[in-house]
Amino acid sequence: MRNLEYYRDLILVLTQKELKVRYKNNVFGYLWSIGHPLAFAFVFFVAFKVVMKIQMEDYSLFLIAGLFPWQWFSNSVVSSPTVFIGNTSLIKKVNFPRHILPFTMILQEMIHFILSIPVIVLFLFIYHKSPSFSWLYGIPILLVIQFMMAYGISLMLSSLNLFFRDLERLTVIFSTFLFYFTPIIYSESMVPKEYRYLINLNPLSPLMISWRNLFLNGVLEPTDLAISFAYSLIALILGYYIVYKRLSWKFAEVL
Amino acid sequence: MNEPIITFENVTKSYHLYHNVIGGVKNFLFDIPKAISSIKNSRFEALHNISFEVYRGETIGVMGRNGAGKSTILGLIAGVLKPSKGRVSVNGRISPLLELGAGFNSELTGRENIILNGVLLGLTRAEVINKMHDIIEFSELAEFIDQPIRVYSSGMVARLGFSVAIHTNPDILLVDEILAVGDVEFQKKCYKKMLDFKKKGVTIVLVSHSPDDIEKFCDRAIVVVKGEIGDIRRIASKPYFTNPESAFIRGMVN
Lengths: 255, 254
Ligand SMILES: Nc1ncnc2c1ncn2[C@@H]1O[C@H](COP(=O)(O)OP(=O)(O)OP(=O)(O)O)[C@@H](O)[C@H]1O
Ligand SMILES: [Mg+2]
Known about the structure:
A: mainly alpha, 11 helices, 74% helix, B: globular, binds adenosine-5'-triphosphate, binds magnesium ion
């Protein structure tokens, strides 16, 4: 019981710290967190709709429905390598559950994402659409799946980066790759037929497709859901049991 | 007094030297055989087969030259390091005064850092808030407590760290050369607090380079020499200067 309370407080206090440090308690912090994906959406809109004349209705809405959840994922992944390194003195001196650090980092990014959902709603209204009731269960389900995925990957990257310090650079390249190979700025149906089977080999594709379908059409495709859940479970098991559990006792030595 | 609270049984601690790997994925992949052999071979044995016990309520000093392995011993007690061989067992709640203010964030205020640090040291948030007043009072930093700690001097940060750590109700207090940071007044206060702890039956492990401190506080002293225990001496009668044991300790240190 005490243990549970301790974990809760640890997560609470560390998340509060992150939010305070990042925003120094001001509202502009919030604007930054939605400004970033909006800026991307604008750039892609200009490049693909205005210049290259992509054949799609409501392209800006389409972009936003995919970019917001992606932003949560990519921010989490890109900050992962520095999660433990950034807390060196703590890890060397105090014995506390270290996986709490990536956990709170992902949680904090998730909070930003949740806070940005009203912007998606706003865009829906602009295009004369409205949120669907299925969001009530759809959003929590996808939040859990994506949390597991991001947490698993984050445990891997943050642990391994202590042993391979150039992982940080590779992560940035890797996440850029992943972005363009995930149907976010284009739809699955635009992928040529002969390559379409490759889409689901990318663990992020079914998840991002699910988010967009949920936001735009209020639909959750069970197959997409099942595949992305399976990927997330694999990521979590790999990250926690295969990587983190085996390396964490060495953290204080290599930092 | 007879119940051991910390037990080291044939503990060996060796550090892998990961410099080749820390060179990065790139280096590792381009020279896998070399990287693997270097991981296997470059080990450094910081502690060699040491055994000792610390009893409940005892204050034990740990002395030795730089690099002898004192901090490694404390790291093993604190549980941040794992022994390579042998067994370390600890039965109690530890407050590590290894580095004051470990985990403080310079952007947060003193008050926010107290909560953060207190929880990291194992208290619940409600417990920290209950003790907030005492912690602030002990640190004598009431004026600055709502300022971000980046404006604190290093002594002030240390004071805050010390205050939090001693208010966590530890069974075991680990102290690694930290008493030198505060000013003279605050040092006196820390010593006094440690004596209070001693009276209350808290077990204290004190690493210090000062034979005077060791004599003043400790019931016994362990002298670490290049990863082995040179000697364990009981510090018996006082005054210290006529005590042959303390002469021995002075000899070891100088
Ligand atoms: N993380 C590490 N990786 C590799 N070697 C280490 C590591 N930490 C300590 N060592 C080595 O282990 C030995 C013991 O170090 P330790 O920090 O325990 O010494 P110490 O007695 O506390 O010294 P000091 O008086 O300077 O604080 C040293 O030779 C040091 O180089
Ligand atoms: Mg030391």
